[in-house]
């Protein structure tokens, strides 16, 4: 197995950039760069059957990932996350409901996919250190994979993150600075501190390789369900939107290989307190405007100004998808109900997808007879469990069914 990486391209201005050196955004226009691959060679070398003969997980798809040398791969044993059928929920009659739970990955969230690939590529290209703003999960994953790679990591952590989150990062050897505010303020703080250090920024969409890690979410869905059985819709909790762009890129590459005819509709779920992507979809805009006065809730959803929102909106629209914003109270209620009825502690981001199900059914966005997958991007452990326990002891038991 070897990478078929060709180079990097900017979809905004069509600039082509070599992939043999450390790079961030497009040097011409400042937009996101996306990795490209030799798909002609992939058609002759690969097949779905050949992929499925390999061990599951991120590195099953090695030819369509950017890491060249075996010795550059940094792994914590990330394997394929489970997809589980939940049956037909009372809130969505006639719908075949599934969940895919990335809380089972090594660092407890889908960010493990991103950082396995991004840290591996940074190591391969000679990075001396990396930094990123984070609400929690990305920082923990960067710290873990950075430790494995012997690469110093500096995290600029939003102050809404639980205390346990910063402690976990420090335990993994990362340098952590807590910043008052949202991801916007955390990145501003990073940019004040990092110049002159020669470090690589790993912010969402500001380097090309985290996206390649999220792409494996789409590849795994293809592996699990096959081309004919893919979900009709994937409901995804959306902050920066990297997962949506990654899945869309995966499905687009599968179509280019001739393995796939249709892709799932991608549906973005945001909190009503910070919903720039949903607002842009409703208003027909090509990019999302920054969200004024964001409510700091469900940290991973609180991204008031997603970078390269054009790519996120493109992924949703080109897949035939849509977006929905749900209230905080509905997310909290869903988090409790999912724990009690299903035994899944998913955290607020994942719970948002359950909270979105009823409004999506009412709007006709998902319909009876369809297969719908809720993507759970992270586990509720460790920080979410004490909060959930407190909620459960101060609320009436929810009925089972």
Task: Outline the secondary-structure elements.
Elements lengths: L4 E6 L5 E2 L15 E5 L1 H7 L2 H5 L30 E5 L8 E6 L9 H14 L5 E5 L2 H13 L3 E6 L4 H9 L3 E5 L3 H11 L6 E2 L7 H21 L3 E5 L4 H15 L8 E7 L4 H8 L25 H10 L3 E5 L1 H15 L4 H16 L8 E6 L7 H10 L8
Helix pairs in contact: 3-4, 3-7, 4-5, 7-8, 8-10, 11-12
Number of strands: 13
CATH class category of one domain: Alpha Beta
Strand content: 15-25%
Radius of gyration: 20 Å
**What's the CATH architecture name of one domain?**
3-Layer(aba) Sandwich
Task: Characterize this entry briefly.
The protein has 401 residues and is α/β, with parallel strands linked by helices. The chain is built from 13 helices and 13 strands.
Task: Report on the architecture of this protein.
The structure is a single chain. The protein has 401 residues and is of the alpha/beta class. It has a domain at 83-109 and 208-393: Rossmann fold. It is 38% helix and 16% strand. It has a six-stranded mixed β-sheet, sandwiched between helices. A four-stranded parallel β-sheet has the order 8-7-6-9, sandwiched between helices. Helix 8 links the parallel strand 10 (233-237) and strand 11 (265-271). The longest helix is centred in the middle third of the chain and has 21 residues, at 209-229. The radius of gyration is 20 Å and the shape is globular.
Which short descriptors sum up this protein?
disordered C terminus, 401 residues, four-stranded parallel β-sheet
């Amino acid at each position: 197995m070897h990478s078929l990486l060709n180079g990097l391209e900017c979809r905004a201005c069509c600039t082509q950039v070599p992939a043999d050196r450390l790079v961030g955004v497009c040097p011409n226009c400042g937009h996101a760069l996306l990795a490209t691959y030799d798909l002609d060679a992939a058609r002759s070398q690969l097949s779905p059957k050949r992929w499925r003969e390999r061990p599951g997980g991120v590195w099953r798809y090695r030819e369509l990932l950017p890491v060249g040398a075996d010795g550059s791969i940094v792994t914590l044993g990330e394997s394929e996350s489970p997809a589980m059928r939940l049956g037909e929920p009372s809130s969505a009659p006639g719908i075949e409901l599934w969940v895919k739970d990335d809380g089972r990955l090594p660092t407890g969230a889908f960010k493990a996919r991103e950082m396995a690939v991004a840290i591996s590529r940074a190591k391969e290209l000679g990075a001396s250190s990396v930094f990123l703003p984070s609400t929690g999960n990305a920082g923990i994953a960067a710290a873990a994979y950075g430790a494995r790679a012997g690469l110093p990591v500096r995290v600029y952590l939003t102050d809404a993150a639980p205390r346990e989150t910063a402690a976990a990062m420090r335990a993994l050897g990362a340098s952590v600075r807590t910043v008052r505010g949202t991801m916007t303020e955390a990145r501003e703080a990073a940019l004040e501190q990092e110049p002159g250090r020669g470090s690589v920024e790993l912010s969402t969409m500001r380097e090309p390789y985290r996206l390649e890690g999220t792409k494996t979410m789409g590849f795994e869905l293809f592996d699990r369900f096959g081309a004919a059985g893919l979900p009709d819709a994937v409901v995804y909790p959306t902050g920066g939107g990297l997962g949506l762009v990654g899945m869309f890129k995966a499905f687009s590459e599968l179509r280019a290989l001739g393995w796939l005819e249709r892709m799932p509709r991608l549906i973005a779920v945001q909190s009503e307190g910070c919903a720039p992507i949903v607002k842009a979809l409703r208003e027909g805009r090509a990019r999302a405007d920054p969200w004024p006065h964001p409510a700091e809730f469900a940290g991973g959803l609180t991204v008031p100004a997603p970078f390269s929102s054009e790519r996120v909106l493109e992924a949703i629209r080109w897949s035939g998808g849509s977006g929905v914003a749900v209230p905080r109270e509905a997310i909290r209620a869903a988090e409790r109900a999912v724990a009690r009825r299903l035994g899944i502690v998913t955290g607020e981001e994942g719970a948002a997808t359950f909270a979105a199900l009823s409004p999506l059914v009412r709007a006709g966005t998902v319909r009876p007879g369809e297969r719908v997958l809720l993507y759970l991007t992270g586990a509720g452990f460790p920080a979410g469990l004490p909060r959930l326990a407190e909620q459960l002891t101060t609320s009436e038991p929810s009925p089972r069914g």
